[in-house]
């Protein structure tokens, strides 16, 4: 059976993947999504630059396409993402007063989360708010509003779609260090002041052979008592790719899938792409390759068996 069915049989919510306008008409991709995965995240279509390129001017064409694909097939929908410093239009980055930026955040969330109200399983409310050193990232949101921008965003999201699980999401939460510490400390502060937060997303953009401590850190996230999700999993290989590295990748996918099973609060895993052909890794890390479960020609890799064996 499919990865999704097997993870659900273990009492978890989904094994998911991404979709966007570049793949929605590619049958090799959508057939795999249909048969193997139970949740969909839009890779780009729900981001700020795509949905509100100018103030108050909302475009939901691409986002609707992804959302409709998912919901019409009974897939869960993960919303990604409401407040992020990247893929942020210039008109937002230029705001420098508290009232305007607060209203802009609230309106963006009201419109975007409002459009998909009742259809979204979970929203990544804030994404990548910390630097790896544990300092807040110097985004327009933090510069103008300080940490409170996070409370503003979570409160707005809860108000507009009370059924959606609300997540903080980040990368490099898979090893010990200041970033995961800062994330856990922030989560405690948010809860202590009554800000609604339900989950922590660990993106898990990983490198083959470099997963020591992954489970230990996922355990720490789960110890908060919040839901935990692996939200953007991929495990890239330093070029040249060879059979030893692919075998290690198989073990690594097994390790990540088992780690989720070993953390009772881990609700699901989303892999950040179907085929290696469409991965963001190609352009961002040209010296790495082959991060996913299907190769450039949509053939299953041994990495698939790694994820699968963990579920058997
Ligand atoms: O849409 C434009 C298109 O009009 C233009 O012709 C083309 C030329 O470069 O660019 C297109 O935009 C690209 C966009 O993806 C849509 O394809 C951007 O250049 C490209 O930078 C963007 O990359 C995305 C990246 O986020 C941007 O930060 C990746 O697809 C996407 O996989 C990646 O996803 C992020 C998560 O959202 C957050 N966590 C990290 C993860 C990986 O970077």
From TrEMBL:
<keyword id="KW-0624">Polysaccharide degradation</keyword>
<keyword id="KW-0326">Glycosidase</keyword>
<keyword id="KW-0732">Signal</keyword>
<feature type="domain" description="GH10">
    <location>
        <begin position="20"/>
        <end position="310"/>
    </location>
</feature>
<protein>
    <recommendedName>
        <fullName>Beta-xylanase</fullName>
        <ecNumber>3.2.1.8</ecNumber>
    </recommendedName>
</protein>
<dbReference type="InterPro" id="IPR017853">
    <property type="entry name" value="GH"/>
</dbReference>
<comment type="similarity">
    <text>Belongs to the glycosyl hydrolase 10 (cellulase F) family.</text>
</comment>
<dbReference type="InterPro" id="IPR031158">
    <property type="entry name" value="GH10_AS"/>
</dbReference>
<dbReference type="GO" id="GO:0031176">
    <property type="term" value="F:endo-1,4-beta-xylanase activity"/>
</dbReference>
<dbReference type="GO" id="GO:0000272">
    <property type="term" value="P:polysaccharide catabolic process"/>
</dbReference>
<keyword id="KW-0378">Hydrolase</keyword>
<dbReference type="InterPro" id="IPR044846">
    <property type="entry name" value="GH10"/>
</dbReference>
<dbReference type="InterPro" id="IPR001000">
    <property type="entry name" value="GH10_dom"/>
</dbReference>
<keyword id="KW-0119">Carbohydrate metabolism</keyword>
<feature type="active site" description="Nucleophile">
    <location>
        <position position="232"/>
    </location>
</feature>
<dbReference type="Pfam" id="PF00331">
    <property type="entry name" value="Glyco_hydro_10"/>
</dbReference>
């Amino acid at each position: 059976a499919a990865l999704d069915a097997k993870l659900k049989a273990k009492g978890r919510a989904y094994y998911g993947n991404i979709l966007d306008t570049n793949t929605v008409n590619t049958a090799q991709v959508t057939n795999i999504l249909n048969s193997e995965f139970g949740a969909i995240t839009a890779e780009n279509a729900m981001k700020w630059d795509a949905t509100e390129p100018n103030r108050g001017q909302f475009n939901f064409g691409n986002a609707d396409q992804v959302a409709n694909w998912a919901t019409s097939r009974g897939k869960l929908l993960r919303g990604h993402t409401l407040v992020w410093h990247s893929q942020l239009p210039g008109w937002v980055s230029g705001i420098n007063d508290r009232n305007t930026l607060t209203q802009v955040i609230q309106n963006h969330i009201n419109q975007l989360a409002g459009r998909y109200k009742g259809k979204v399983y979970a929203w990544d409310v804030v994404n990548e708010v910390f630097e790896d050193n544990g300092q807040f990232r110097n985004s327009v949101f933090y510069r103008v509003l300080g940490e409170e921008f996070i409370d503003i965003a979570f409160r707005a999201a809860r108000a507009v779609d009370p059924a959606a699980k609300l997540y903080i999401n980040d990368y490099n939460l898979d090893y010990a260090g200041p970033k995961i510490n800062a994330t856990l400390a922030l989560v405690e502060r948010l809860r202590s002041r009554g800000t609604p937060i339900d989950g922590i997303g660990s993106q898990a953009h990983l490198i083959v052979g470099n997963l020591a401590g992954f489970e230990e850190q996922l355990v720490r996230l789960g110890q908060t008592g919040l839901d935990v999700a692996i939200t953007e999993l991929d495990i890239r290989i330093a070029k040249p790719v060879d059979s030893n590295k692919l075998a290690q990748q198989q073990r690594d996918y097994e390790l990540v899938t088992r780690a989720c099973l070993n953390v009772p609060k881990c609700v699901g895993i989303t892999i950040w792409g179907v085929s290696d052909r469409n991965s963001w890794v190609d352009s961002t890390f040209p010296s790495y390759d082959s991060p996913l479960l299907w190769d450039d020609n949509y053939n299953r890799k041994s990495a698939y068996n790694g994820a699968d064996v963990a579920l058997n």
